[in-house]
């Protein structure tokens, strides 16, 4: 938005990739764009920079981007899991081999306790923040009450209740398991894409 007009930011501005899956602004004012073909794109004032495989990002297709409370960037990819970046260096890659429920990361959420909730195509994983580092502690899928394992939204509210969206509805965590929220009400569109 410039002078009251909406302007498309695209390749003519040297922004690579036209399929943007996520967009955040970090604490330094940089815009970070998760793209489907150009990896992670940083836009700072007029300068544009891509973070790709050449910089250690394991997959060029980025679905989700999160900056945690310590300033680390978390990058959810299409096929290669979750990448943690600290001080512009890849510090860890999370996949099914070390605790993720799936390698296609669709959504990320950090709760007030600094835990990271990772929504994948195969379910939900909690990366618990303990003594200054993260560990995969819990995973949820259809065996835990989710109607679909394809997580498209996740949010923990101020009361500590975890809400999860899938393409088959809204779920709420109760006593360690998920249940469909208000099944007696038919949602007009069951595909939940965001929860705030």
What does this structure look like?
Helices cover 0% and strands 46% of the residues. The chain is globular. The chain is mostly beta strands and 196 residues long. The model has no long low-confidence stretch (mean pLDDT 84). The chain has a four-stranded antiparallel sheet, with no helix packed on it. The chain has strands spanning 20-25, 31-35, 40-44, 47-51, 62-67, 73-77, 82-86, 89-94, 105-110, 116-120, 124-130, 133-140, 151-156, 162-166, 169-174, 177-180. It is built from no helices and 16 strands. Strand 11 and strand 12 (133-140) form a beta hairpin.
Summary tags:
16 strands, 196 residues, 46% strand, globular, four-stranded antiparallel beta sheet, mainly beta
In helices, the fraction of residues equals: under 10%
Average predicted confidence as pLDDT: 84
Record the strand order, biggest sheet. Answer: 1-2-3-4
**End-to-end span in angstroms?**
23 Å
Instruction: Give me the Rg, rounded.
Output: 17 Å
Q: Outline, from the CA principal axes?
A: globular
Structural class estimated from helices and strands: mainly beta
Instruction: Find the count of extended strands (DSSP E, 2+ residues).
Output: 16
* Number of alpha- plus pi-helical segments: 0
Oligomer: single chain
Secondary-structure element string:
EEEEEEEEEEEEEEEE
The largest pleated sheet is described as: 4 strands, antiparallel
What is the strand content?
over 45%
Low-confidence parts lasting 5 or more residues at pLDDT below 50? none
